[in-house]
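Ex. 9. Protein: Riboflavin biosynthesis protein.
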Amino acid sequence: MRISRLPLTQLAASAVTIGSFDGVHLGHQKIIQQLVASAKQKGLLSVVVTFEPLPREYLNSKRAPARLSSLVDKAQKLAQLGVDQLVVLPFNERLRSLSAEQFVQQVLLDALNAQWIQVGDDFRFGADRKGNIDFLRHYLRPYDFDVVDMPSFCVDQERISSTLIRQLLAAGEMQQAEKYLGNAYSLSGRVIYGRQLGRNIGVPTANLLLPHNRLTTDGVFAVSSMIDGQKYYGVANLGPKPTVNDARNWLEVHFFNLSANLYGKRLCIQLHKRLRAIQTFDNLDALKTQIQCDINAANRWFEQTTEVN
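Predicted C-alpha cells for Riboflavin biosynthesis protein:
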C-alpha cells in the first residue's frame, strides 16, 4: 500500500472512501472490504482518504476524544485489508475553508480521479459542513458514476462505532471492545530507555513512551506481543507512574520468560484484561510486592483463557 499526502499528481482512476477510521473496527473493516471489492470489480485503484490531525482534534484539541489508533497503526491495518493507496489530508485552515464544490473538484476529481465514492449518511465536508451525500450525488450526476452509502454494521444488535469502543475501554471492558474491534485493543511504540527502576527491583520492563495526548484507558493489564515471530505474554502499566512522580503516559511492559534486548524495537502490545487501576505506593518495596501480585494475576488469567489473539 502506498501512502501519500497532498499535493498529488493525479492518481489512476480510483474508488474512494473518506473518514477518520479511528481504530479500524469491524464496521470500518466492512466498509473497506466493500471498497476493495468494488475497486477490483471495476478495475479501479482502491483509495482511503483520512485526515491528520483528525478534524475534531484541529477544531477543539482539548475536547477531542482520545484516539483508538495512531496514524501508523491505522495504515498497517488498512494495508492488511488490501487497500492500494492511503491519502492523508492535512486538516488545516486551508482544507477547512474549501467550499463543498472546491473539495469535490480539487480533491475528489482533480487529485484522486475518483470514479466511485463511498461515504456515510452523516458525512459532512466543505466550509460550514455544507457538503453531504446528497450534494455529492447532485454535483457528480454529470460524471455518471456511483456515490454509495456506507453501511452500518452491528454486533448483537449494537451499532459499532469508535465512540462506543472508547466507552468500553474507559470502563475496562476489554473483551467487549475486542468483539467490536475484531482484535484485542493494541498500542504500539518504540522501546526507549527509562529510569531502569524495573530492572533494579528485579522486574525488567520495556518502556514505550506513547505519542497520544490522552489515553482511552489506563491501569494495569494482562498483555501480549509478537516479537521476532514469537508470542510473549506479560503484564503492563498504562498511564502515568505516580509512585516515581512521572506524569507522562507510558506503556511499561514486563514480559514473562523474555530476556532479549528490546531497545529500539517497535512493539505492538495487545491489552487483553484490565487487572486494576493505577495506584500510588509509599515506596519501591510496596510497588515491587504489588507488581508480583499483578504478575500472578496475569498468569492466572492467561492460564484460564483458551483463546488469546
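Check your answer against this statement. The first strand starts at residue 2 and ends at 5.
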